[in-house]
């Protein structure tokens, strides 16, 4: 009986740990130019998510075309690539329980006109074509984006000292 219980607890732990997924968050060129990088990092840090990768790069159009491949047919695509390649960006990987879904909630709606106050876009920007930050929309696209922007070595596994105060198990 106790063994069954312990086995169930162990499975539960594994499921919870598996959900400590990774999401790809990127401060766009307007976020960098406007000096909002620290504010965006602060929100993810204060939430309790764990930073596992970060860099400062001026991305090529080729990389951005791969990143936004799903949107290639959209009328705003050329403008999007021009905007995103207009200056340096800050790609990051954040890890935590449901980080993909929660990350999107923290970003707010794509169009800042529809983003709720309290969200990053809702508080800090105005127009959809200058919405300061990107966040993965699914675990699958997060994995694709992480592999596109980072090498395996650039993503650093570590255990924060406060982990037991962020998660109950
Ligand atoms: P998301 O960034 O919230 O995931 P997507 O639909 O994936 O939104 O669009 C990617 C990016 O393309 C948006 O964040 C925004 O910068 C840009 N974008 C989306 N729709 C429009 C539009 O109607 N006009 C201009 N830019 C747009
Ligand atoms: Mg998207």
UniProtKB/TrEMBL annotation:
Signal sequence, renumbered to the chain: 1-17
Gene Ontology molecular function terms on file: ATP binding; nucleoside diphosphate kinase activity
Cofactor: Mg(2+)
Reactions it catalyzes: a 2'-deoxyribonucleoside 5'-diphosphate + ATP = a 2'-deoxyribonucleoside 5'-triphosphate + ADP
Domain Nucleoside diphosphate kinase-like: 20-157
Enzyme Commission numbers on file: 2.7.4.6
EC supergroup of this enzyme: transferase
Keywords from the named record: ATP-binding, Kinase, Nucleotide-binding, Signal, Transferase
Residue numbers annotated as active site: 134
Pfam family, one: NDK
GO BP annotation list: CTP biosynthetic process; GTP biosynthetic process; UTP biosynthetic process
InterPro entries noted in UniProt: NDK-like_dom, NDK-like_dom_sf, Nucleoside_diP_kinase, Nucleoside_diP_kinase_AS
Residue numbers binding ATP: 28, 76, 104, 110, 121, 131
Family per similarity comment: Belongs to the NDK family.
NCBIfam families assigned to the protein according to its UniProt record, in alphabetical order: PRK00668.1
Protein name according to UniProt: Nucleoside diphosphate kinase
């Amino acid at each position: 009986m106790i063994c069954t219980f312990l086995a169930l607890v162990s499975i539960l732990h594994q499921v919870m740990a598996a959900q400590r997924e990774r999401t790809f968050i990127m401060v766009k060129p307007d976020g960098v130019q406007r000096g909002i990088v620290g504010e965006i990092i602060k929100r993810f840090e204060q939430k309790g998510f764990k930073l596992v990768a970060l860099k400062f790069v001026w991305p090529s159009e080729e990389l951005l075309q791969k990143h936004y491949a799903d949107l290639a047919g959209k009328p705003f695509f050329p403008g999007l690539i021009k905007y995103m390649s207009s200056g340096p960006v800050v790609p990051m990987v954040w890890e935590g329980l449901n980080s993909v879904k929660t990350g999107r909630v923290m970003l707010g709606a794509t169009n800042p006109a529809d983003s709720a106050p309290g969200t990053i876009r809702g508080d800090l920007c105005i127009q959809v074509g200058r919405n300061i930050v990107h966040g993965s929309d699914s675990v699958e696209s997060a994995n694709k984006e992480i592999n596109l922007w980072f090498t395996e070595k650039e993503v650093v596994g570590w255990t924060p000292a406060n982990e037991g105060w962020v998660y109950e198990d």
